[in-house]
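Milestone M4 deliverable, item 7.
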Amino acid sequence: MHAELAGVSGDRTPVITGVGIICALGTGREAVTAALRADRPGLTAITGFDAAPFPSRVAGLAPGFDPAAFLDRRTLMRQDRVLHLAVAASDLAVRDAALAPGSWDPRRVAVTVSSGKGGAAASEDAMRALIEHGPGAVKPRRHDASFVPAAVGIRHGVRGPTLGFSCASATGLFSLAHAADLVRLGRADLVLAGAAEAPVTPFTLASFASLGVLATAEPGDPYYVFDRRRRGMVLGEGAAVLVIESREHAMRRGARVRAELAGSGLAGEAHGYFDFDPAGSGGTDAMGACLLDAGLAPAGIDTIVAHGTGTRVNDAYESTVLGAVFGPDASRPLVVGTKPLTGHTLGASGAVEAALLVLMMDAGIVPTPVNWGERDPDCALRYTRSAEDRPPRVALVCAYGFGGFCGCLAVTAPSSLS
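Output delivered:
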């Protein structure tokens, strides 16, 4: 039901009032902000299983994340790690937004917290038990991707729309874009939105290695994006949940607004499953739609948080998209890839990177491109800071997923468009 039919009035601008994040940089806003200030990559050796047979023996693992600090032992045993990450990130977001228990109408709250893969480790464990010991050895565990939004909704007593997306590496960004639409249309006053992924498992590593997109990496090796030396992606685990609410709702409860969601653009490229249109059609459509939705011109963008996976194809594709949309202004905005800090969190990456952008805006951090030093003619954009650069004020977050999922989100510092 549209806002006017539901009797909803006031300023429906979607604003971000809480950030819950868990990734290779740490757990929670304070820890991750400190790591961003220090430009400290969080990639470490894989320790959960023998990674020797795989080309990449490093990953972005969440250091010090203790799910027992958020969930009881019985729940922990029944859920995959992806649900642990999602629920913990939602708790952190609610706490960061200063939302008191019982302070909201549960029918006016929604959940769009998604996972592209769902419970990878639990699925692999179940398959191993089935093959080795038969059907009776398979234990009921909550690992389906649909349980990710369900777990968050149950945790917080949400009775409004509760849903998840599965759009490969664009999953998290699609979730945030839909949350903003729910708020704008008056279908929810507040949304817990984001994504979680726990993909550092043997089968997932083997799958990406078979596609030729996994980097050959040892502990200490740099993860390159948009650099001539780039050699593929390094996986990471993580979750980010944002509290997105209407400006009116935020003002009524005296919440601090950390950023605004000015617009979004989503597109399907209809080109292939594992490759993208060399002309950049899907990304160009999504970014153009986002700028139109936000009422922004390319010249008004100061920072682009790129998808930047470090594969030969993706980084060149993104550079083509940005060149097509920005034209002569393509060298003006600072292009930042954050995956060298966190690893590629797959379906969670759009949400994690949007959360990192909000933290940079909120803390006044000028983003630093990490591990960039050798220009590639296929990636002819600006990846180095200049003396004129300031903390992001008007920025784009981009995400692209296998299957042709293309998304772009416009995020602005509070009142920067007024």
